[in-house]
Amino acid sequence: MSTSPTTPDASAAGSEDAPNLDFAGTTPYEDYVQADVLTHLQHLRSDDPGEMVFLVTTQVMELWFTVIVHEWETASRALREDRVPVAMDALQRSVYELESLNASWKPLARLTPAQFNAYRAALGEGSGFQSAMYRRMEFLLGEKSASMLVPHRGAPRVHAELEKALHEPSLYDEVLRLLARRGLPVPAAVLDRDLSQRYEPSPEVEAVWADIYADRDQHSELVRLGEALTDVGELVWRWRNDHLVATRRAMGSKTGTGGSAGVAWLEKRARKNVFPELWTARSHV
Ligand code: HEM
Questions:
Q1: Annotated binding residues, as ranges?
Q2: Where does heme bind (predicted)?
Q3: Per the domain annotation, does 227 fall within a domain?
Q4: Which of 119, 125, 127 to mutate to test ligand 1, by most ligand atoms within 8 A of the CB atom?
Q5: What CATH code is carried by the domain that includes residue 276?
Q6: Within 10 Å of residue 112's Cβ, how many Cβ atoms?
Q7: Is any atom of ligand 1 closer than 6 Å to the C-beta of 266?
Q8: Does a structural domain hold residue 61?
């Protein structure tokens, strides 16, 4: 039996506790969520039934990147203003979001080369390497590189956002500035570094983290901050490695659609440690 607003049935519109069915325009849900926009952005390029989940997984990951960038920008701002609890909340949320992001590898993790080949040609030169939101994540982690702006020259808004992010302090720069304001001996060369360059690990910063971790009583808040950052670093490292393994399964050692050496190039990227001194300091505590 129909449940349309014009011919409501008893279970839907008839009782007092039923939801509203009648809206003058689009539903308030649609006005907020824009589900109609979101669910009509799947423009497939092949007839292969497996392409849909490839495209949607990529879109889902782009949405998670967007949320995570938002959290890390919130955390960076809060650290700059010495509001550590606000930063901690944002970092903790980002840890759960990174776990969800990583869980979304599931549908693509076991693609065979034949399955991937069924739509690979349709991707042309398209590659996640060209994801501007992923690049903003990397910039926030301190992995800055001006050359990563080049692919986005043709997209003014994206290029402007990336250029701003390139010159802003990363999340980790804000953490180190906070440590310096708390009286810890972060070297001036680290604090005054050229922000548009990749962050290079410093033995003095490693020693600062080792001292923080060695004295939990005096530095309990900073230890918690260090651990939240370590969670973030671990989960980003896991994303890179899950991506690497999925790629290895789907295409072996072929070159990537983005023109790189493929797996060999991704292996190098995946080897990098996020927030390096938080890992190396552990040997000295
Ligand atoms: C199993 C399917 C996938 C394969 C085979 C694959 C393959 C590759 C390859 C070979 C590269 C290196 C650049 C190139 O030459 O293209 C790359 C980079 C990248 N891919 Fe994927 N990819 C897959 C799925 C995804 C998904 C779902 C995302 C989500 C957005 C993604 C995001 C990225 C990013 C962000 C990079 C750049 C990494 C960096 O800059 O370190 N990939 N991918």
A1: 120, 243, 257
A2: 243
A3: yes
A4: 127
A5: 1.20.58.480
A6: 11
A7: yes
A8: yes
